[in-house]
Amino acid sequence: MGKKLAVTGNQAVAEAMRQINPDVCAAYPITPSTEVMQRFASFVADGKVDTELVTVESEHSAMSACIGAAAAGGRVMTATSSQGLALMWEMLHIASGMRFPIVMPLVNRALSAPINIHGDHSDGMGSRDCGWIQLFSENGQEAYDNLIQAIRIAEHDDVRLPAMVCMDGFIISHSIESMEYLPDDVVRNFIGEFRPKNPLLDIENPVTYGPLVLPDFFMEFKRQQHEAMLNVKDVVLDVAREFEKISGRGYGLFEAYRLDDAELALVILNSAAGTAKDVIDEYREKGIKVGLLKPRLFRPFPYKEVAEALSSARVIGVLDRADSLGGFGPMYMEISSAMTTNGAKPLMINKIYGLGGRDFMPEHVVQVIDELKEIAETGNIRLQKDFLGVRE
Amino acid sequence: MKGWKDLEIGAITKAGSADEYNTGSWRAFRPQWIEENCIQCLFCWIYCPDSAVTVKDGKRGEFDYLHCKGCGICARECPGKKGKKAIVMVEEGK
Amino acid sequence: MSTTPLRLKELSKKDELLTGGHRLCAGCGAPIAVRQVLLAAEMPVIASNATGCLEVSTTIYPYSAWKIPWIHTAFENAAATISGVEAMYRSLKKQGKIKERIKFIAFGGDGGTYDIGFQSLSGAMERGHDIVYICYDNGAYMNTGIQRSSATPLGANTTTSPAGSVIPGKVQPRKNLTKIMAAHGIPYVAQTTPAHWRDLMTKVRKALDVDGPAFINVLASCNRGWRTPTDTTIADTKMAVETCFWPLYEYENGRLTINYKPKEKKPVTEFLKTQGRFKHLFSPENEGILERAQELVDREWEALLREESLYKSEEEKA
Ligand SMILES: Cc1ncc(C[n+]2csc(CCOP(=O)(O)OP(=O)(O)O)c2C)c(N)n1
Ligand code: SF4
Ligand code: SF4
Ligand code: SF4
Ligand SMILES: [Mg+2]
């Protein structure tokens, strides 16, 4: 098996990229993802990868160059955060609409204003409708594992869509944890050779990419993208099964933590889920049936499976590290869709937490579980949507 | 028209397929080639926006009326022979 | 490999790489320029294209007028997109997965080049990609209905710089993008027009031959925006050169050559007067604008002559 090391999330992601050895990378620096590309630039400078690194003048150009490179016919990666992703937004849709399997680590960070460099999920959630596959990662190990799997998922013939792998800025990107890297050849065999489709560089068979599509054909292409998204779930599970064989680490569409018989359930993404697990253990010891659902695949969202996993819950607390101002948090909307589609009618509350890197502490988890308990007992919800850890 | 299951993903288009598209119907005036006045300078060919002047073995052929939009550039730029144009524009349908 | 001589008879034997059946207006200057660019190339080329008239009208699904591999992604990024294509080419070549020599061209309108795509263009040139960027400058955002751009000439009546009763058309002069590109210190920069087909094709060949980035600015008339008849495209363009509104020149490794000096420089009004977009300038109250337009042309032309003579005298000394 692989070797155990103590590394930061960014280091782990850069290492995965070295092992993936993409043909082209185009990138632009932004905290907290900068280090990924710095490390990768050293791999390029030291000849450890075959990659052509394009040090573009903006993230808009980064994604544009990635799209051009992907169209040319090869494996393409980049990394970004926050404002960088926001600047890419136009091109995110174009990458997915043109069906290029570009893979991008997204080190989650708050969006301005006010400007803030710390972790929250506003960037990732803001791009959930861009047609990208989105995988979320609790820690550096998951980010590393997800990135390697994302290559296989994105490039699968039934999918051919770009994928972003999210991890929390600073909390994960900059903290050292113990994890395991796979050997290079194992990763290389796992991802396999890139198989280009209609590459621009095939001058014998010229193609036109990016025509003007009028109302007579537009919806057919969107319907195709939807179909590709529908195919993602099975591919994610197949790839996870194969990945378990090489790594011993199992993955699903989400992680269900002590959820089987849970009457009270929390839904939390990424690193905060780790914090919640310890508190859940304490409550379980006291005999309180509480569990956690930690989504991994956010786009496409596995509504049916999530609803089934939460089927025993009478009260659900959905925590969002991003807000849709004037609406519920993005995760809440998904969970609530999942539950109603399934015909279940749990009581649900939404807590916005951790914006701009605000600490998320065990006492916040305690606060939410106690509130869920109270709702279960009284049937009363005081505030459907509220904030955690905000001063009055 | 093809449905979503049959279309190539990503809206890829076949190179050069516009060749099949008729823009000749746009014409209000049609260029007419008067061969005896032609000096084979090929200005009409190099200045045509619509690749609608056919040339074979370096010699002018007929206009490609499937594509010619009747802009009149060829006629205007045609030097002709001894002041006599080798291309004239005539109203369509006349 | 022998190169096709730049004679129309020989060139006409080459494959036509932009087909008819595109939906650009009758008499549009852009496709004339593109045809000449593609005819000039003596090796396989792959192109990217910024959003705009040329892109939209040549690729209305399921049709495409391009016989070369071609990609459009967005408006402001033809240079970044082609950078990516070229980077992939270099990567695969380095890995031995591709053998052919291929060159890369980006096409953009003036809006996509002077304005919204300026940053992406500047970045790509600075990075030194082996690409040729070709701007077809028709002096406004034509595809969205003739809005002013920074390439729109002084005084022009556009839909966002209308000739009103208080403001007589565009108040600012054009930005001199060709000079700005020359200031990037890239191996090749030139300005030309499709009315001067041999000049254009010579420049395209030079641009394709250099190892590194090149930029060519091509004046491409638009009869809708210029408000000219459909058949005067070439004549109007020639007049732009005869008046020195659009001088033909090039920078080879930083050295300027003026490729054409009119025997008798015509007044700029000769270029302006045939175009509806400048019609209002010919009423008495706008006389000052015409004078200023002439001054701008004179200043640029004289600066070019001075700069060229500087190189010449240096060479004589050497
Ligand atoms: C980001 C963005 N902003 C605006 C537009 C709208 N738009 C499309 S083409 C165009 C004008 C193109 O002008 P130019 O580059 O000069 O090309 P032309 O149409 O004149 O040939 C504009 C404003 C767009 N497609 N994308
Ligand atoms: S009229 Fe215009 S489109 Fe027709 S052949 Fe002449 S130049 Fe070409
Ligand atoms: S421009 Fe006139 S003279 Fe010249 S080849 Fe065409 S038709 Fe003949
Ligand atoms: S509007 Fe102008 S630039 Fe656009 S297609 Fe028509 S003539 Fe050409
Ligand atoms: Mg324009």
Strand proportion of chain C: 5-15%
Q: So what's the overall shape of chain B?
A: elongated
Could you list the spans of chain C in which at least 5 consecutive residues all have pLDDT below 50?
none
Let me know the largest β-sheet of chain C. Answer: 8 strands, mixed
Mean pLDDT of chain C: 97
Average pLDDT of chain B, rounded to a whole number, is 97
Decide which structural class fits the backbone of chain B.
alpha+beta
Describe the main β-sheet of chain B briefly.
2 strands, antiparallel
Alpha-beta content class of chain C: alpha/beta
Helix count from the secondary structure assignment of chain C: 12
Order of helices and strands of chain C: HHEHEHEHHEHEHEHHEEHH
Spatial order of strands in the largest sheet of chain C? 2-1-3-4-6-5-7-8
With helices defined by DSSP (H or I, 4 residues minimum), what is the helix count of chain B?
A: 2
The chain pair with the largest interface is: A-C, 44 and 48 residues
Distance between the termini of chain C: 36 Å
Helix percentage range of chain C: 25-40%
The gyration radius over C-alpha positions of chain B equals 17 Å
Q: How many individual β-strands of chain C?
A: 8
Brief synopsis:
With 392 residues, chain A is α/β, with parallel strands linked by helices. Chain A has twelve helices and 16 strands.
SSE layout and pairings?
The complex is a heterotrimer of chains A (392), B (94) and C (318).
Chain A: E1 3-8, H1 9-20, E2 24-26, H2 34-45, E3 52-54, H3 59-72, E4 76-77, H4 82-97, E5 103-108, H5 122-126, E6 133-136, H6 140-155, E7 163-168, E8 176-181, H7 184-191, E9 207-209, H8 218-247, E10 254-257, E11 264-267, H9 270-285, E12 290-295, E13 297-299, H10 303-309, E14 315-320, H11 330-341, E15 347-352, H12 362-378, E16 385-387
Parallel strand pairs in A: 2-3, 2-4, 5-7, 6-7, 11-12, 11-14, 14-15, 15-16
Antiparallel strand pairs in A: 1-8, 6-13, 10-12
Helix pairs in contact in A: 1-2, 1-6, 3-4, 6-8, 10-11
Chain B: E1 13-14, E2 29-33, H1 43-47, E3 53-56, E4 59-63, H2 73-77, E5 87-91
Antiparallel strand pairs in B: 2-5, 3-4
Chain C: H1 8-11, H2 29-40, E1 45-49, H3 53-58, E2 70-71, H4 78-94, E3 103-109, H5 110-115, H6 118-127, E4 131-137, H7 177-182, E5 188-192, H8 197-209, E6 214-219, H9 223-226, H10 233-242, E7 249-252, E8 255-258, H11 269-272, H12 287-317
Parallel strand pairs in C: 1-2, 1-3, 3-4, 4-6, 5-6
Antiparallel strand pairs in C: 5-7, 7-8
